[in-house]
Amino acid sequence: MPTRRDFLKSTLMTASALAVPSIGAAATTEPAQRAAIPARAGARVVSTWDFGVPANRAAWALLGPGGKALDAVEAGVQIPEADRANHSVGLGGYPDRDGHVTLDASIMDGDGRCGAVACIERIVHPIRVARRVMEVTPHVLLVGEGALQFAREQGFHEQDLLTPEAEKAWHAWMKEAKYRPVPNSENRDYHQSLGLPGGKHNHDTIGMLAVDAHGHLAGACTTSGMAWKLHGRVGDSPIIGAGLYVDGEVGGATSTGVGEEVIRNAGSFLVVELMRQGRSPQEACEEAVRRIVKKRPDGAKELQVGFLALRRDGAVGAFAIQHGFTYAVCDADSQDRVFGSPSVYRTSFN
Ligand code: SD4
After folding, report:
1. How far is the CA of 228 from the centre of ligand 1 (A)?
2. Site Cleavage: which residues (predicted)?
3. What's the confidence (pLDDT) of residue 203?
4. Which end of the chain is more exposed for a tag (fewer CB within 10 A), N or C?
5. What per-residue confidence (pLDDT) applies to 182?
């Protein structure tokens, strides 16, 4: 358990790490912690977690030759959505406690245009449905059956999203049926304790932010949400201002972790608004995380929330409650760098 001393120590070390001046080396298995990545002219795409690397590459296939940020983020996040081995996004995602795989997704550009779907079932690429909501309806958010009906009308193909592996994990969980949003840094042990094969996480989201060569911004966020949640539960990812927010004058932010905490604090909007007021992406993410921690009587010791921010000049920041949050950065210099985010607790500086 982290003590107050650990907390103060990690705070101090994080502050000193803010001075880290330059982009790190290529990805390693133990990603280096980077408190801030400086501005860079030209296109750049960033996304949450290690699985952001292949997603960024798909986005870069469009961004690199001069494509639009909006198209790039939509294409990028479809990689984990279609990945059966990823149990926290799209196909193969862990179900709710009743065995339904329900997905949340949102997309937004720098002009304030946005669309989202929540608690949608049977569609592998909810991000594409979210974009259609943005482009062909007067609405921002469609949920559940209505979202599925809209997807059908738009010609989306339906399929069962519960893979045999995810179903096995669900049956294993049902033996105790305790809902416990374990911080991702500890999920490896959690999975092993359940005897689960494969994946190490019970919740992760891909949030992706991009700036294109024309200086336009966009973001996308997609997830199967918290494993074993109540049926009908919606997290932060499809809530504009919570799991995702983009403002073309400032930058964008996205989040991962326990969505309820992010919604309570309008997290991504807060990060962007703090950047508007002059905070760096790093400082803005850190302040948003600390607001969450401060409001929890237990100091949020058992929770994970991470924010990732991209300023319009390409500067990047990230901060999380727990050690273990990683993010991937891709630009013309290098396509597959992964960094460890600094955090309130158990930073590698401890
Ligand atoms: C949610 N924020 O549904 C998502 C899940 C997640 O790391 O990101 N977990 O609350």
Report:
1. 12
2. 204-205
3. 57
4. N
5. 63
Q: Which residues are catalytic?
A: 205
Candidates 201, 164, 157; CA nearest to 182 is 201
| Residue that is written with structure tokens 């639009």 in the block | 68
96 Cβ closer than 6 Å to some ligand 1 atom: no
- The predicted model scores a pTM of 0.88
Q: Give residue 33's pLDDT.
A: 72
* Residue 245, C-beta contacts closer than 8 angstroms, at least 6 positions apart: 108, 219, 252, 253, 254, 268, 269, 271, 272
Atom of ligand 1 nearest to the CA of 260: 10
Does the Cβ of 259 fall within 6 Å of ligand 1? yes
pLDDT by residue (tens digit) across 250-291?
A: 999 999 999 999 999 999 999 999 999 999 999 999 999 999
Range of the domain at 100: 36-345
For ligand 1, atom 5, the nearest C-alpha belongs to 225
233 assigned binding-site residue: yes
Asked if the structure places residue 11 within a domain, the reply is no
Count the domains in the chain.
Answer: 1
What CATH code is carried by the domain that includes residue 84?
3.60.20.30
Helix (H) or strand (E) holding 147: helix 144-153
Residue 27 confidence (pLDDT) above 70:
no
pLDDT at 137 over 70: yes
Residue 22 maps to a domain = no
- pLDDT tens across 158-190, in order? 999 999 999 999 999 999 888 877 655 444 444
261 alpha carbon to ligand 1 midpoint, in Å? 10
In a domain, 19, yes or no: no
Determine if ligand 1 sits within 6 Å of the CB of residue 205: yes
Nearest residue (by CA) to ligand 1, atom 3, is: 225
Instruction: Give the pLDDT band (50/70/90) at residue 14.
Output: very low
Q: Which residues are 338's β-sheet partners?
A: 328
The sheet carrying 337-340 orders its strands as 141-143, 114-120, 103-109, 217-223, 206-211, 44-48, 326-331, 337-340
